[in-house]
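Module 6 notes. Inverse folding takes a fixed backbone as the condition and produces residue identities as the prediction. Think of it as a translation problem where the source language is geometry and the target language is the twenty amino acids. Below is one complete input and output pair. Work through it position by position during the lab.
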């Protein structure tokens, strides 16, 4: 979708300050995005407006200043820290004589670079096609008329109409393939639900440290870097927690303020992991000055994808970057952990996170004593395999008295299996 210069792209950044909070963007975040896209920043042009101009987004004088900067620095791209309309992009490109990219296009470009799996590439292409379909005029101003002449008389549509038709066809094709992926994911989720395995999903602002935390907890080697959108493709791993058993931990794509709607729609299958989770670990970069704004942005995206009702456990990460940072668990009025302070980089507080997870996910536990006859030695072995036996004592009549501790879910499942295998209720062996 995007042509790249072999020598690397050099950009002029444009940031406009608006009085209305919802229209504002962060200049430092734009610089991080540009760095993540492997683009060199030559100059930053700032402006202040009450409302965007319909022609250039900025005023005509500021637009001329941007064009002069492009010539002065010999830049090959101008990047705006805002969303531009197709008309504004086209007008600016005509004036600056180089490519103009808005914030949405920049994020899409970063996603295109990071996609590794087949599913991820399909999702990015879908988002790009939806975005670029409104900007086709820019590339085909010389072919707006119907084709004519020998060998060119055809369907009676302009080149623009042909391209739009081809893009619609490609979008339909990608949606069909993503639907298959979504069904496969749903199948996996249904299997986990049948096995009653809880799912914990990592969410948070981009570069909050989700992948580093994921690697620390699961001992995996998922790519983690100090850059925006280092993780794009979701990763699932199984971990074991005491008194809980198997738990699926999911690492997901990071959120960002004003996340393009094309991406939210395209990554619907991926974000479903978040929506269907039993618990969300909301990872926060506690060293970031804009942490409160970032929390609000994540909450906004969670509402957009319908995951705002899922229970959350706040993870205050990067305490190693605080002068007085210490690992701890904060409890609410009901004695439930709602916030954990840790450092995924150093590992400080990871055991507290596991402790908090156990407290939030631990099911109802059963403490029972079973008196099993010698003929049920196979069941005794199964109880040991489940790590449920806490104490065992041999009785005078050859029976075995076992003290067991297991979740109510596992107990119900075991009772059902025993009834099928032995034709007898396990409740009859409880003392």
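Target side of the pair, the amino acids:
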């Amino acid at each position: 979708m995007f042509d790249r210069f072999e020598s690397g792209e050099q950009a002029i950044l444009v940031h406009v300050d608006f009085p209305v909070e919802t229209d504002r963007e962060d200049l430092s975040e734009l610089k991080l995005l540009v760095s993540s896209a492997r683009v060199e920043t030559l100059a930053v042009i700032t402006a202040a407006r009450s409302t965007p101009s319909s022609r250039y987004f900025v005023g005509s004088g500021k637009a001329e200043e941007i064009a002069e900067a492009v010539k002065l620095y010999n830049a090959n791209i101008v990047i705006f820290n805002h969303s531009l309309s197709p008309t504004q992009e086209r007008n600016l490109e005509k004036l600056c004589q180089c490519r103009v990219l808005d914030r949405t296009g920049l994020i899409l470009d970063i996603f295109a670079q990071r996609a590794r799996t087949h599913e991820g590439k399909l999702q990015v292409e879908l988002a790009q096609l939806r975005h670029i379909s409104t900007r086709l005029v820019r590339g085909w101003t010389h072919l707006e008329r119907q084709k004519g002449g020998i060998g060119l008389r055809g369907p009676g549509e302009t080149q623009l109409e042909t391209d739009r038709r081809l893009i619609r066809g490609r979008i339909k094709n990608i949606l069909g393939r993503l639907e298959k992926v979504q069904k496969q994911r749903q199948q996996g989720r249904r299997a986990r639900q049948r096995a009653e395995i809880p799912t914990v999903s990592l969410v948070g602002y981009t570069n909050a440290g989700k992948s580093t935390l994921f690697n620390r907890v699961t001992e995996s080697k998922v790519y983690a870097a100090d850059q925006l959108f280092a993780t794009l493709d979701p990763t699932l791993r199984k971990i074991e927690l005491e008194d809980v058993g198997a738990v699926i931990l999911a690492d997901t794509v990071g959120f960002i303020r004003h996340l393009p709607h094309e991406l939210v729609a395209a990554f619907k299958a991926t974000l479903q992991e978040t929506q269907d989770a039993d618990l969300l670990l909301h990872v926060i970069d506690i060293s970031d000055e804009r942490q409160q704004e970032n929390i609000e942005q994540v909450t906004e995206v969670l509402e957009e994808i319908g995951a705002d009702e899922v229970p959350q456990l706040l993870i205050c990460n990067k305490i190693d970057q605080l002068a007085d940072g210490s690992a701890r668990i904060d409890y609410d009025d009901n004695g439930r952990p709602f916030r954990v302070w840790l450092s995924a980089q150093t590992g400080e507080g990871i055991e507290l996170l596991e402790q908090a997870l156990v407290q939030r996910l631990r099911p109802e536990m059963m403490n029972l004593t079973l008196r099993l006859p010698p003929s049920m030695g196979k069941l005794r072995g199964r109880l040991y395999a489940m790590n449920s036996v806490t104490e065992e004592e041999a009785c005078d009549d050859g029976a075995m008295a076992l003290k067991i501790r297991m979740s109510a879910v596992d107990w119900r499942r075991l009772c059902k299996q025993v009834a099928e295998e032995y034709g007898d209720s396990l409740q009859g062996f409880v003392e």
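Reference fact for the lab report: The first helix runs from residue 27 to 36.
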